[in-house]
Amino acid sequence: MDFDGPNNTGIAKADGLPGQEAGSAVLGYYNGDPVYKRDGAQTYGVNFSEDALAICKDDDTDACKGNFPTPPSGSSAVGSLSGSFDLLVSSGLYLTMLSFYYTDSGTGSRLEIQLFSDGTRLDGPPAFSTCGTGICPWALFEVSPGYLATKPVTSVTFSSTTGTTVFDNIEFSTASRAIPEPSTYVLALLGLALVTAAGRRRKC
Description:
Elements: E1 46-48, E2 53-56, E3 76-79, E4 84-89, E5 93-104, E6 112-117, E7 120-121, E8 139-143, H1 145-148, E9 155-159, E10 165-176, H2 182-203
Antiparallel strand pairs: 1-4, 2-3, 4-9, 5-8, 5-10, 6-7, 6-9
């Protein structure tokens, strides 16, 4: 996901659509954009929270916000005016790979990502490295597949001090969550009934 929109024109650039300041310039764009139906929308099986904001360098157009190095993908990146935003995986899927580029303003950015499995926060992953002071060059961050294999990650929160960090080229892969066959439930219930019956016999 490069946040550059069709033909590198940005995501929300049409009459009647929310402006970049609305925060919904990214919301739904990578899940087929069912509400605004913007040109070039992609169906990737993820949504962004309303705090996600597509931004680009000030010298590109008057609508762009931000003061950061040219993004790896072109002109646009994603950040948040509130300091955090969520990447939400569609129901029935979980992440098997996650990587992205980021630039921040050093140690004061307090940059971190939080991984969740069905609303439960998971421990880790490792902390980010920063360049110290000033605006850092773009750096690649990857979550190890081994870590993602420990539990099904269904959402990611990107957070930092407001106005200090932007992200670009978010890449990921997903897999379907296994749904037990009806026969599996039947066998589980039968096993529970047998255990309960055996326990009652011991008490008699």
